[in-house]
């Protein structure tokens, strides 16, 4: 049985990269014929504690991201949708997995190296983060995990930990696989296409999901392009143009090969139109969802109950297998 799972971290304002890399591909997996428990989506608020954060804002950010996820099509009627911190099994399994993982493999994670270099004081949870992420996935026996390319290494680690645990103790976990979107696995910063569009870096090249449409248009029209004038998809030689083509392709569900433009200006206008066509209705849906805050909180509470039920048998099996057999 396939089970699709993905979580989203409320560590900053969500971006177009989050939408095209993971939120939208996750939403598109929600077909009418699937059982609700075939899809598990959530807000990984515990992951937001790995870098300096404002406690007063944590809940607001989590609710904002949950509302945006629903607005992007993560329909809570069709999936289990919950907040990670409301399901204690995540932290409990994370500890069992930390006792399966090695210090060296955590240190080798690219995201750890990049993020730890940015902070003077590095929280220990930043190092152990991939064990919690593995717990998020393995608790639900997820098979498919739609994510952006920046999470591939964490997914490989989750797979390694599942296999190592199964070998060392008993076969408890399903090794998961990452599912990357075709076009927008790595949306780049519009002002500097050599780096990933990121919610943790304030850049004029980041499109936030709640940017007003005129701001979105301005950011796209000012995107850095490349020398020459041919509109061709060549991420090495033409990173700026290729990024715009990838964004346009993902927004319109059109293969990159089928896109043809005669000038950079024309490409930019088409990309701005396509991004706005996606964001405008999303923002309208979000406004309606945000206006009913208690409704959203109730949805998350109900989702957490379902998630707790789904997670319980796997946590119990993992405890038994590792030797925690006392009641
Ligand atoms: P997060 O919150 O940083 O990002 C959410 C999702 O968006 C993707 N993404 C991108 N995709 C394409 N281009 C970009 N520029 C871009 N930026 C972000 C991310 O790859 C991610 O899929 N650790 C995860 C959240 C998480 C998780 C999990 C994911 C926690 N537990 C279990 C899957 C399964 C994170 O911080 O993603």
Automatic annotation (TrEMBL):
Gene3D superfamilies: HUPs, Tyrosyl-Transfer RNA Synthetase. Belongs to the class-I aminoacyl-tRNA synthetase family. Its EC number is 6.1.1.2. InterPro entries: aa-tRNA-synth_I_CS (IPR001412), aa-tRNA-synth_Ic (IPR002305), Rossmann-like_a/b/a_fold (IPR014729), Trp-tRNA-ligase (IPR002306), Trp-tRNA_synthetase (IPR050203). It comes from the Bacteria. The lineage of its organism: Bacteria, Bacillati, Actinomycetota, Actinomycetes, Streptosporangiales. GO terms for molecular function: ligase activity. It comes from Actinoallomurus liliacearum. The keyword tRNA processing does not apply. This is Tryptophan--tRNA ligase.
